[in-house]
Amino acid sequence: MDATGRPLVGFVGLGVMGSAMAGNVLARGAFEVHGYDIDADRRRAFADAGGTVHDYLASLVAACDLVLTSLPSTTAFESVLSGLVEAARPGTVVVETSTLDLRTKLDGAARLARAGVEMLDCPLSGTGAQARAGDLVAYVSGAPEAVGRARSLVEAFTRAHFELGKVGNGTLMKLVANHLVAVHNVAAAEALGFAQDLGLDLWQVLAAVGDGAGGSRMLGVRGPDMVRGRYEPASIRMDVFAKDLEIIGAAAAEAGTVTPLFDAARAIYRDGLSDGLVASDTAVVFEVLRGHPRPRDPAPSGRRVSESVDNGREHA
Hints:
The chain is 53% helix and 11% strand. By secondary structure, it is α/β, with parallel strands linked by helices. Helix 4 links the parallel strand 4 and strand 5. Keywords: NAD, Oxidoreductase.
């Protein structure tokens, strides 16, 4: 704790999600907030926001009672894990929020436990924009005592959280959530394309359909970007989400679950990546679908940006 009795929390990974969460915790004022990222520009931005920056992972880990990790890949997690094992004090609680496969999470928790550090598996449901608004849901799993110590931190950057029992249950819940995100995002894109072909105003579609039984969070969150044709900067990049889809596919195969809707949706994301839409937001599946042949059209050579989408910009 700092001189005023506030717990010290360290954020490792200050990308879209990590910086948003850290910003919300800073705004609460209940924690002394430290941060580390391998990217110097991100460290400077965090310092400008009022956080305490560390140029080295080891110094952050040694200073903090709670460490939250928000990382883009298994490789990044394993690199940070080595630093945590070496530098963390026994009794430290690590709140691991990345979307990774179950085995990686369980192995990481076991390595930290041998060093006297408790890891919570705590993946998040929500986009970067939702993270900035504090509109995240956390799936928290791990030892009850560690959950109790981290609860006020999790509450500082989420709208809700669910305590799910043993380590790993959080990741399993996130896989189910992202399965639906993948399908609903493509379903929203397909429905908006259908509405466009019917000659409907897409902004009216978002308002009318979104307020009825056909609405979904993905229609509400990603629909406006689909209508505007605006896919950068990304709240969740296509290549990052593709990593999540492969994890889900592998878990479903291992569980023996038949996933025809998910498989069809995953093919759309793969098509987008093949077309070079790597850094675009996942809302860009609208453009991927509009570039696919439809029954009344000849096979187009590229995507069409319709007048409805262009005209929708005045609503931005």
